[in-house]
Prior knowledge:
Elements: H1 3-17, H2 21-31, H3 36-51, H4 59-62, E1 72-73, E2 76-84, E3 88-95, E4 98-106, H5 113-127, E5 137-142, E6 148-153, E7 158-159, H6 160-167, H7 171-190, E8 193-194, E9 203-205, E10 211-213, E11 220-221, H8 227-236, H9 244-247, H10 254-269, H11 274-283, H12 295-306, H13 318-328, H14 330-335, H15 340-354, H16 358-372, H17 383-403, H18 409-425, H19 429-450, H20 453-470, H21 476-497, H22 507-520, H23 524-541, H24 544-560, H25 564-577, H26 585-588, H27 596-599, H28 603-623, H29 628-647, H30 651-670
Antiparallel strand pairs: 1-2, 2-3, 3-4, 4-6, 5-6, 7-9, 8-11, 9-10
Amino acid sequence: MDKSSFQRLESLFHEATALPGGARAAFVERECAGDAELRAALQSMLTKTETGGGLLEVPVLEHLEESLEGVRAGRWKVGRRIGEGGLGVVHEAEADGVPRAAIKFLRPGLDAGSFRRRFVVERKILAALDHPHIARLLDGGIDAEGRPFLVMEYAEGLPLDQFVSAGTPSKQARLLLFRQVCQAVRYLHASLVALGDLKPSNIMVNTDGDVKLLDFGAAKLLAGDTAEQTTLTRAFLTPHYASLEQKTGAGPSVAWDIYSLGLILGEMVGADDGDLAAIVSQATREEAGGRYQSASELDLDVERAQRNLPVHARTQDARYRARKFVQRNVAGVAASSSAIAALLTAGVFFWRDARRDQENLVQMRGLVRSVLDSAATPFASTSEDRKAIQGVLQTTIAQLEKQNHDGVELELAAAWRRLATSKLEEGQAPEADAALEKSRDLAEKVWQRRRDPLALESKAITLPLLALSMRHRANASVGLQRAHESIDVHEQYKRTLKRKLPPSHPYYRLLVAMAPELVREGKIEQARLALSDAAEVGRAIGARDLGGRALIGLARLAEFEGKPGARRGYCAQALKIFPQSNQFAQVCSEDTTQPEFVREMAPDNRLSELRAQLDAVGQQQMRDTENVQLLLRTANLHAQMAKALHEKGQDEEGKNTSRQRTSFSSCWRSGIPTTGAR
């Protein structure tokens, strides 16, 4: 078959692939009447396209091949043939400084028309890519015989499917390989390229387990490709790995490659793992919109499966999240008395016998309390872990409520409280408040019925959390009520159990927050004791924020009582331990008095001096916008300016200056720096 005959074959092939399958046979007979060779070649190409073999072994092309070993292409010497694709053949090659590379030529007879243009597109795409998991383009051009070629780095190793079969790597190792492929595909999509024919034979894996993507003959630009190139791409895809929309001629899309990735993952890991099976199912959905929307999303879900985190492809109910939590923390769960496994056992199974067996009841109460009264599980460091904990707690609460046993109210109160702290960590304050109210009500019920000291302790632990959570929201009045109740309960707790809550408990933060309210209510001594208690706890545990804020509160109280010496003493202590003390300048700052020489100046000269100082401070502040001391200095200078202007009778300008001083002071109090003060 000469070149003109092949071009005729190419044209007929494109026309035939655009027709419905049932109309192709009649088209072939009509267009190839009288030319048995053309009919056989066209029918063979169409059959390969329809049955999954691609055009890698199209018989009509075999007799057109010629040996290229030993020829030169530019600076490259061509070696043995190592592979072939739909458009071309691949040989080893070498050049000065490059002992081994891969050179690809168009097949003889395909070096014109749309095939040649497709080859140029491939070279253009490769030239723009630079990624560790994609074979790099080294060179390209036309040899002395007019054959287009491109040269790529030589990829050592085996195709992905052969590597997995030969080495039988672990599931984790296979997932690492797959994620390398995802990363390469993610890079391609970010470069506006869809690979179009992603399959294991185009993915090489070396002995170190590093992946390289090869063969971009079917790659598509996501923008700018022609209808001709889209049709040609269909001719060279491998149907088994191609999505439905790709087979039917839809334009290029990242969804093409997501579908192929899903099939490859399924072949690598099988269907035994429920999470991975769900990932494969979502990636290979028939409707493109139902698949992962990017390679990044797919890669992230595979990573989550690796880490035993809940995957997005599955419905994440409480039981599923709890199981994943236990799987990720097998060692910790086995070693800890506060085991989530114990929670599950306690909440679901053990309680079936507890109502009949008092000894079991005692053991159960001890186990649940040791787990739930801890402030946090050592493993719940992520949002996913906290959601898993919530699922387990909700299961446990449901089981405890189902038993309706008089002996488990405090365990149930502890479970509600632990659920609430997890909700607070997730920013779900209203749900947390409801859970804390349930915890408080259960403890109060027990206290009223039998004056159990543990019920008092439960209330003392719960109420500060509830008051702090409610304090800054619409139900602040209820929060204030709970705060007063918290202080009263803690005093009762100290008298009854002869101890205080642990220093790390949020109760001491509540004391600092409540001090101004106690002062407004005339409870000065109670406010002083509360702040002193918080300051002592802050020093004892090294909590600078708590201790510093308590000292600032004591300074405010001293200011209220007209004790400037005590105020300065508390402020000095706060400044040593509390870096955020500059937020409380209205309490701890001293107005900078005018130096004597300024006070003795004539009013006009004094104003000039103050303006000069303001200008100098403003210049410094422009260079150091976060220096709150400069902000305070500016406010004080404005105050002095206002006074001097008033003495000169310039009251309007003095009022403006005073307003500026107020503005700067407000910024100082809120800790917000102001730039370019004048």
